[in-house]
């Protein structure tokens, strides 16, 4: 039995025997580095991390099925290989939002530059960011009090910037007065989203993609559906103020959380902008949102 297993592994590794050398180790190192950067940028501390673990398990099952076939257990091997293929096809449907988000990232200008050369620009301007958060909190405080609807998009390292083209470019410093002016009901830009990028109000009146989640509660209107939809196709965080109730929520990765007080909102905005370190032992979105499914 042991000799059979060893012979199977020799047959699997035989195509690599002729090329093992320093070049092979260099190639392996490049692959590992690219996968590590990809993991850090897109997967670590996200909901997709569980998906990756599942894919590793499927890869192991596929290798095991090949071993069964080489061991002349054809029926078991073919059955297991077919089962893995069916599961992979079903994952394309189940995780369609994650795949759509990734394809959206790849289609953005400067995709490679953002992956390999992006830096923590938020942390380099901590004092300026704190002032910005104060301005936003003051504006949100007034918006909730007057029940004025608002939708603010915080663009990060990788964003669906193509949606900016359908809005009006502002390119102005962030201030409470300007935010309140943009979302005033009598202004032409109040129905769209305001996009914040690089510590500036990049644009306003931006039309965002609506979520297509059929399980979303009926209580969410167009503004909330746009916020959830934007968070599904990008890494942006979307802040929403309801014009019906004055409630404040933040959407990220298709998850929405409602806030009961502005202090918690301020703390989460600091985490989103990199001003507050995220605990290593907890999931990033749970640390920010402290959310469970089915609970606001």
Overall domain count? 2
Residues in helices, as a percent range: 40-55%
Give the low-confidence spans: 119-124, 277-296
- Put simply, the count of helices is 11
Radius of gyration: 24 Å
The backbone outline, from C-alpha atoms, is elongated
Q: First CA to last CA: what distance?
A: 56 Å
**Secondary-structure-derived class:** alpha+beta
Query: What is the element string, with H for helices and E for strands?
Result: HHHHHHHEEHEEHEEEHH
Structure, described:
This protein is of the alpha+beta class and 296 residues long. The protein has 2 domains: 2-94, no CATH class; 123-289, 3-Layer(aba) Sandwich (YojJ-like (1). It contains 11 helices and 7 strands. It has a 7-stranded mixed sheet, with helices on both faces. Strand 5 (237-241) and strand 6 form a beta hairpin. Helix 3 packs antiparallel against helix 4 and helix 7 packs antiparallel against helix 10 (262-272). The longest helix is centred in the first third of the chain and has 23 residues, at 48-70. The chain is elongated, with a radius of gyration of 24 Å. The termini are far apart. The relative contact order is 0.10.
Topology:
Layout: H1 2-17, H2 22-43, H3 48-70, H4 74-94, H5 96-106, H6 111-117, H7 126-146, E1 150-154, E2 168-173, H8 176-182, E3 193-197, E4 200-206, H9 222-233, E5 237-241, E6 248-252, E7 255-259, H10 262-272, H11 284-289
Helix pairs in contact: 3-4, 7-8, 7-10
């Amino acid at each position: 039995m042991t000799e059979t297993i060893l012979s199977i592994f020799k047959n699997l590794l035989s195509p690599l025997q002729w090329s093992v050398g320093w070049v092979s180790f260099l190639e392996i190192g490049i692959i590992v580095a690219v996968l590590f950067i990809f993991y850090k940028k897109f997967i670590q501390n996200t909901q997709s991390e569980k998906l990756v673990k599942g894919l590793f398990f499927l890869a192991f099952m596929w290798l095991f099925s090949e071993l069964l076939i080489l061991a002349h257990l054809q029926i078991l091997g073919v059955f297991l290989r077919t089962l893995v293929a069916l599961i992979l096809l079903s994952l394309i449907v189940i995780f369609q939002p994650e795949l759509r988000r990734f394809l959206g990232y790849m289609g953005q200008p400067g995709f490679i530059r953002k992956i390999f050369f992006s830096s923590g620009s938020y942390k380099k301007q901590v004092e300026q960011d704190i002032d910005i958060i104060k301005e936003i909190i003051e504006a949100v405080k007034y918006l909730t009090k007057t029940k004025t609807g608002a939708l603010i998009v915080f663009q990060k390292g990788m964003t669906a910037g193509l949606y900016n083209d359908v809005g009006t470019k502002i390119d102005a410093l962030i201030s409470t007065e300007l935010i309140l002016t943009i979302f005033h009901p009598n202004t032409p830009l109040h129905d769209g989203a305001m996009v914040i990028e690089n510590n500036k109000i990049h644009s306003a009146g931006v039309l965002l993609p609506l979520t297509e989640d059929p399980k979303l509660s009926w209580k969410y209107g167009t503004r909330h559906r746009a916020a959830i939809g934007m968070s599904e196709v990008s890494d942006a965080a979307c802040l929403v103020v309801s014009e019906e109730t004055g409630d404040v929520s933040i959407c990220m990765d298709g998850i929405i959380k409602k806030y009961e007080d502005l202090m918690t909102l301020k703390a989460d905005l600091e985490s989103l902008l990199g001003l507050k370190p995220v605990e290593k032992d907890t999931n990033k979105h749970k640390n920010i949102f402290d959310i469970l499914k089915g609970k606001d």
